[in-house]
């Protein structure tokens, strides 16, 4: 059949412009970008030691050769450059990776309740990281300069094994049942959690801060060397996940349907799991487990933008960054001089959303 | 130039679920596959579509083994409507139809893709639902959206070769008038040079719209031919366990089947 077989549309049909099409849904980039800029500047400025924004802009312009009369004092500059900035950069990257990994895993399992934390990916990564740290003494003498890669590498392997295990237990060919996949995640997380508990007891204090770090997560460990070590895997994961946005839409139709539309489904699934494991592994190895970012961010964005991953993935990266940086500001400033674990804050936000999605039966088949 | 199954067998464990079946789907025809429950109709369609590997034999599309086609090239020629599709995410109806265009729109959808998607919705009588979320539709509406998606996928003929449309029970959730709508569209598709293979339960629909009917029983092809050749009371009694009478109508190419009761010897 061809287009000419079709009767011309009667005048009562909405004109093309009025039909809600992928391009016709709201464009989120300006709002999300502005939100990210605002929280980033806030995070650079506030804290136990204030860095005034006027001075920050003045110094930045001065570096470009423009005199404004405002500048940071040396102490302010030191706090900004060696403490605040690496922390914000790390927050931006980790937030983006957690949120996009969540969205990708949800498409892979065809279920909006899936998330790296709930699936066991994060616990697996933490177990891998802890194991590498505990064994560090034995490994460090032989590896030389590659030592920096041991912890993220082990976290990646842990994340990968946990995700594959959860997929094996909870998945099947078609749409995955919510109860089954959540139970698989519970089992994998519990196993990994027990391993972390045992290993942290064996470790010395110098090797591990506390078990809390691995269960709740924090950006407090950020430094430039941490940022440098984790940038490459985080960015690779992010690029891989964003590149597959189109195919993720087809995956939502079903694996058979995606295959019939020309997607190499097995390769796509392998690529997604590898990318998510790489990103979550790198994130967890430097920040510990920060839960529910991957559930909360795509869930909110789907309400506003619809399920098209060509917008959802990029928007998730932006909102994930903004959310994690904002949560970190709160973690640093809410209970001074104590610092709250940021993972506990994101979970406090995420759990009600998760419960309401469960209660409304979303993702139940 | 055809979609051809050559001596295809599908084994599950030690049992043979299908075959051996040799079947040639040629351009311009609507081929109905009928048979009792569990006869292997869906297995045949899955093997024909390439998604189920053949244990023995092979499926050729336009002379080339189906799995040797690059995925996108295959998707430009072969469209499949599965028996049921679950889509739990809130795409609009138009967005679902546009997903069918993805083999064409490797760099984002253009106006040709939008036109094809909207025309496919028009043909399936669901264009008024364009902006409704898929998840809010009834079963019959969803089935027509999925069919519109597959029609949008095959909307225009590829530069070389033919289009093959495989439908697994495309009328199962539809009201009477839309059952006929779907099969009329299948006929249009065949008239424009495409081929349709449709698994159907209603023998009268098959008799009315199909050029050829394939009867499957216990995984084997027991009869293949025109409706008038195939739909004989004794064959229907032995394969379906149903006693029927045939009524001829003057302007109808095929007889009309009227069931009169279950065949006595059938379990």
TrEMBL record, chain A:
Its main location: membrane. It is a multi-pass membrane protein. InterPro entries: ABC_BtuC-like, ABC_transptr_permease_BtuC. GO terms for cellular component: plasma membrane. Keywords: Cell membrane, Membrane, Transmembrane, Transmembrane helix, Transport. GO terms for biological process: siderophore-iron import into cell. It is found in: Cell membrane. It comes from the Bacteria. Signal peptide: none annotated. It holds the Pfam family FecCD. Belongs to the binding-protein-dependent transport system permease family. FecCD subfamily. This is Iron ABC transporter permease. It comes from Myxococcus llanfairpwllgwyngyllgogerychwyrndrobwllllantysiliogogogochensis.
TrEMBL record, chain B:
Keywords: ATP-binding, Nucleotide-binding, Translocase, Transport. The keyword DNA repair does not apply. InterPro entries: AAA+_ATPase, ABC_transporter-like_ATP-bd, ABC_transporter-like_CS, P-loop_NTPase. SMART domains: AAA. Gene3D superfamilies: P-loop containing nucleotide triphosphate hydrolases. CDD domains: ABC_Iron-Siderophores_B12_Hemin (cd03214). It comes from the Bacteria. This is Heme ABC transporter ATP-binding protein. Part of the ABC transporter complex HmuTUV involved in hemin import. Responsible for energy coupling to the transport system. Residues 3-243 form the ABC transporter domain. GO terms for molecular function: ATP binding; ATP hydrolysis activity. Pfam families: ABC_tran. The keyword Heme does not apply. NCBIfam families: PRK13548.1 (NF010068).
């Amino acid at each position: 059949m061809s287009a000419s077989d079709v009767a011309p549309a009667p005048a009562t049909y909405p004109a093309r412009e009025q039909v809600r099409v992928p391009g016709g849904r709201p464009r989120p980039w300006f709002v999300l970008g502005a939100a990210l800029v605002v929280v980033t500047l806030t995070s650079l400025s506030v804290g136990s030691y204030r860095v005034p924004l006027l001075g920050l802009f003045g110094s930045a312009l001065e570096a470009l050769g423009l005199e404004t009369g405002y500048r940071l004092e040396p102490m302010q500059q030191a706090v900004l450059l060696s403490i605040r900035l690496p922390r914000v950069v790390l927050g931006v990257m980790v937030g983006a990776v957690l949120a996009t990994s969540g969205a990708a895993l949800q498409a892979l399992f065809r279920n909006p309740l899936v998330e790296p934390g709930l699936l066991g990916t994060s616990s697996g990564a933490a177990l891998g990281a802890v194991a590498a740290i505990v064994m560090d003494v034995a490994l460090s003498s032989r590896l030389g300069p590659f030592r920096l890669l041991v912890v993220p590498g082990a976290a990646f392997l842990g994340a990968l094994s946990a995700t594959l295990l959860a997929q094996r237990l909870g998945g099947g060919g078609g749409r995955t049942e919510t109860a089954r996949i959540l139970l698989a995640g519970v089992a994998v997380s519990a196993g990994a959690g027990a391993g972390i508990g045992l290993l942290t007891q064996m470790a010395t204090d110098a090797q591990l801060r506390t078990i809390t770090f691995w269960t709740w997560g924090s950006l407090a460990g950020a430094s430039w060397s941490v940022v440098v070590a984790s940038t490459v895997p985080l960015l690779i994961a992010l690029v891989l996940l964003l590149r597959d946005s189109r195919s993720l839409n087809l995956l939502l139709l079903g694996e058979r349907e995606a295959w019939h539309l020309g997607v190499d489904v097995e390769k796509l699934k392998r690529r997604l799991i590898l990318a998510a494991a790489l990103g979550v592994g790198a994130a967890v190895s430097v920040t510990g487990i920060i839960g529910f970012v991957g559930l909360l961010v795509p869930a909110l964005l789907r309400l506003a933008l619809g399920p098209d991953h060509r917008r959802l993935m990029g928007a998730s990266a932006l909102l994930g960054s903004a959310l994690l940086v904002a949560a970190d500001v709160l973690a640093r400033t809410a209970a001074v001089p104590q610092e709250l674990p940021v993972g506990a804050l994101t979970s406090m936000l995420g759990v009600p959303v998760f419960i309401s999605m469960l209660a409304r039966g979303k993702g139940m088949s | 130039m055809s979609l051809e199954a050559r001596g295809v067998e599908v084994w599950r464990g030690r049992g043979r679920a299908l075959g051996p079946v040799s079947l040639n789907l040629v351009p311009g025809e609507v081929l109905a596959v009928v048979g009792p429950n569990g006869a292997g109709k869906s297995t045949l369609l899955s093997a024909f579509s390439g998604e189920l590997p053949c244990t023995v034999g092979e499926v050729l599309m336009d002379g080339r083994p189906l799995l040797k086609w690059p995925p996108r090239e295959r998707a430009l020629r072969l469209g499949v409507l599965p028996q049921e599709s679950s889509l739990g995410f809130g795409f609009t109806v138009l967005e679902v139809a546009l997903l069918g265009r993805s083999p064409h729109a490797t760099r984002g959808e253009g106006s040709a893709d939008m036109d094809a998607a909207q025309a496919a919705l028009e043909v399936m009588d669901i264009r008024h639902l364009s902006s409704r979320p898929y998840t809010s539709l009834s079963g019959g509406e969803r089935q027509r959206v999925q069919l519109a998606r597959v029609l949008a996928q095959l909307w225009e003929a590829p530069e070389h070769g033919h289009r093959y449309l495989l439908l697994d029970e495309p009328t199962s959730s539809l009201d009477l008038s839309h059952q006929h709508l779907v099969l009329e569209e299948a006929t249009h598709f065949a008239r424009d040079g495409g081929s349709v293979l449709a698994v159907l339960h209603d023998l009268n629909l098959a008799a009315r719209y199909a050029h050829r009917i394939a009867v499957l029983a216990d995984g084997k092809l027991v009869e293949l031919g025109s409706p008038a050749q195939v739909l004989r009371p004794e064959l229907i009694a032995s394969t379906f366990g149903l006693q029927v009478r045939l009524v001829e109508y003057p302007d109808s190419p095929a007889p009309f089947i009227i069931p009169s009761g279950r065949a006595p010897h059938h379990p």
